[in-house]
Amino acid sequence: MIRPILIHPDPRLKKLCEPVGDITAEIGRLAEDMLETMYDAPGVGLAAPQVGVMRRLIVLDCTKDPAPHRPLVMVNPEITWASEDLSTYEEGCLSIPEQYAEVERPAEVRVRWTALDGSAQEEQFAGLWSTCAQHEIDHLNGRLFIDFLGPLKRQMITRKMEKLKRERARQV
Ligand code: NI
Predict the structure, then answer these.
(1) Domain range summary for the chain, segments of one domain joined by +
(2) Cα distance between residue 79 and residue 96, in whole Å
(3) Would you please indicate which residues are annotated as catalytic (active-site) residues?
(4) How far, in Å, is the centroid of ligand 1 from the Cα of 143?
(5) Does residue 9 surpass a pLDDT of 80?
(6) What average pLDDT does range 86-99 have in this prediction?
(7) What is the SS3 string spanning 41-95?
(8) Preceding peptide of 9 cis, ω within 30°
(9) Ligand 1 centroid vs 46 CA: distance in angstroms?
(10) Contacts of 115 (CB under 8 A, 6+ apart)
């Protein structure tokens, strides 16, 4: 089921999310819905707070077509190591449609998480996977990519999003 994606500014996008406890059927359904919502958008990552669920769960898939898809579901993801080398990517966000900006982050990170089957996972990511994992984990801590920008740029984007939300509200 495709779930509606919250658009910035929204107080739920600024909050610290709670860890997932037991991986229940409900969490399994949430992960499945989030993947469906992400692929439909289309996007390369989605965090639970973006669909209004304040839990530490993200999904990502940064494979480029025609490579086989690799849908990753990360429950309670944690960055355990970050490289000193930095890299810059032009980032976007499904909660901030059609706005892009360059953000500098560690080029590589190791992430530890729990898979849906309850197993502990740890993997090192580089390139877009690394950027995306960091961006999605930021969402769980109430941080958006525009928080890396200067105040003027951030305000400009926020005003555009307020306008977009007003327009969408009128269309309903
Ligand atoms: Ni995002």
Answers:
(1) 11-171
(2) 24
(3) 136
(4) 9
(5) yes
(6) 97
(7) CCCCEEEHHHHCCCECEEEECCCCCCCCCCCEEEEEEEEEEECCCEEEEEEEECC
(8) yes
(9) 6
(10) 73, 74, 75, 121
Ligand 1 centre to CA of 45 (Å) is: 7
pLDDT digits (tens, 9 = 90+) for 63-76: 987 788 999 999 99
**Rounded CA separation 159/152 (Å):** 11
37, 3 Cβ separation under 8 angstroms? yes
Length of the chain: 172
How many angstroms does the Cα of residue 90 sit away from the middle of ligand 1?
A: 12
DSSP run (H or E) holding 21: none
CB count, 10 Å around CB of 35? 18
Superfamily assignment of 11-171 in CATH?
A: Peptide deformylase (3.90.45.10)
This prediction has a pTM of 0.96
Question: Could you tell me the two tokens for 118?
Answer: 């309850």
With bands split at pLDDT 50, 70 and 90, how would you rate the model's confidence at 135?
Answer: very high
8 Å CB contact between 30 and 47: no
Find the radius of gyration of the CA atoms of the chain. 16
